[in-house]
């Protein structure tokens, strides 16, 4: 399955395990990398010293390539970037910010840089900034995504039409069939998040993993666009947010309700009522919690079988 993505990251399969807050610690990242894909540590939920510890533990757990996902909206971003360099991390995925800010700095230090976008406009800006690849993430995704509500299978061919560098599809992909469909539309690889939340090695709370497995069609909704768009499982906190909208809310009121560590409370501590439960629409196709190696094997097997069956038509 060798292509531009497997060559760029020196991995077996063109699959990236997304760096998700409160889900993507060293155990998930190392298990992903050991399974032949690219594992990412999610720096968004980590203080700098915690990130350093996770990087060091990941190095001890795998001799395969892995990277760090860095949302650029956090105040200690400079310290985080310096730790990444000090710990000799060779791959960085940036998101939630201007790729011009750090791309050159990272590449000057020999680091492969990938930026996450939600539109053609920002994909071209990332390419102009010098990134090595782009992740184009559609409306279906969990976590923070674009305000435009462009779906993945609409976004991918539009970005592919104008982009010259490798393209990774994200949002609504959790199966081999979904992976193949994304690649038929022009992606060189896929980034998968939600499916790996419901893995044995994910650092998410078991209650959150079980909630993901129980999630059905229509049980998630993209909201909080005034702050940063996020797809949530509908629970008490989600209902409180919607009640504010019905009354005619402001960004300040939303911030007050959100408070601090709301996502930690939900995904890491397992508070299914008051916590922020971020997950993609594809959760409706996730029916079990299993080891990362089994998930990767299932995706790859289904990808190959589906590709072969289509070739016979």
Q: In short, what is this structure?
A:
This protein has 313 residues and is α/β, with parallel strands linked by helices. It has 14 helices and eleven strands. An eight-stranded parallel beta sheet has the order 1-9-8-6-5-4-3-2. A three-stranded antiparallel beta sheet has the order 7-11-10, with no helix packed on it.
Description of the structure:
The protein is α/β, with parallel strands linked by helices. It has a domain at 4-199: Aldolase class I (TIM Barrel), CATH 3.20.20. It has helices at 4-9, 26-34, 48-61, 77-86, 103-108, 120-129, 152-162, 176-184, 194-197, 206-214, 236-247, 251-258, 262-268, 292-311; strands at residues 15-17, 39-42, 66-71, 91-95, 112-117, 133-137, 143-144, 167-170, 189-192, 220-223, 230-233. The protein has an eight-stranded parallel sheet. The protein has a three-stranded antiparallel sheet with strand order 7-11-10, with no helix packed on it. Helix 3 runs parallel beside helix 4 (77-86).
At the fold tier of CATH, the topology name of the domain at 4-199 is TIM Barrel
| Cα separation of the termini | 21 Å
Approximate shape:
globular
Name of the top-level CATH class of the domain at 4-199 = Alpha Beta
Mean of residue pLDDT values? 94
Count of strand segments: 11
CATH superfamily of the domain at 4-199: Aldolase class I
């Amino acid at each position: 399955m060798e292509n531009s993505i497997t060559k760029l990251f020196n991995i077996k399969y063109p699959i990236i395990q997304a760096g998700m807050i409160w889900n993507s610690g060293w155990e998930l990242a190392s298990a992903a990398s050991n399974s032949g894909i690219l594992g990412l540590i999610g720096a968004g939920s980590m203080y700098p010293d915690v990130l350093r510890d996770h990087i060091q533990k990941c190095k001890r757990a795998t001799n395969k390539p892995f990277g760090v996902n860095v949302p650029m909206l956090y105040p200690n971003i400079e310290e985080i970037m310096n730790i990444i360099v000090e710990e000799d991390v060779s791959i960085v995925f940036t998101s939630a910010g201007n790729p011009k800010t750090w791309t050159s700095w990272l590449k000057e230090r020999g680091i492969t840089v990938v930026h996450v976008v939600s539109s053609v406009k920002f994909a071209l800006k990332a390419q102009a900034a010098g990134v090595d690849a782009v992740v184009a993430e559609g409306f279906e995704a969990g976590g923070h995504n674009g305000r435009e509500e462009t779906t993945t299978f609409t976004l991918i061919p539009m970005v592919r039409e104008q982009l010259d560098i490798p393209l990774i599809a994200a949002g609504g992909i959790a199966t081999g069939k979904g992976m193949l469909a994304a690649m038929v539309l022009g992606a060189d690889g896929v980034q998968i998040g939600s499916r790996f939340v419901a893995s044995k090695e994910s650092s998410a709370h078991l209650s959150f993993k079980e909630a993901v497995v129980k999630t059905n069609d229509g049980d998630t909704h993209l909201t909080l666009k005034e702050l940063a768009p996020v797809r949530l499982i509908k629970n008490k906190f989600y209902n409180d947010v919607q009640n504010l909208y019905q009354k005619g809310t402001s960004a300040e009121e939303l911030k007050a309700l959100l408070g601090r560590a709301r996502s930690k409370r939900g995904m890491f501590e397992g508070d299914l009522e008051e916590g922020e439960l971020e997950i993609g629409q594809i959760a409706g196709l996730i029916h079990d919690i299993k080891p990362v190696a089994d998930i990767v094997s299932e995706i790859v097997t289904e990808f190959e079988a589906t590709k072969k069956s289509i070739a016979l038509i």
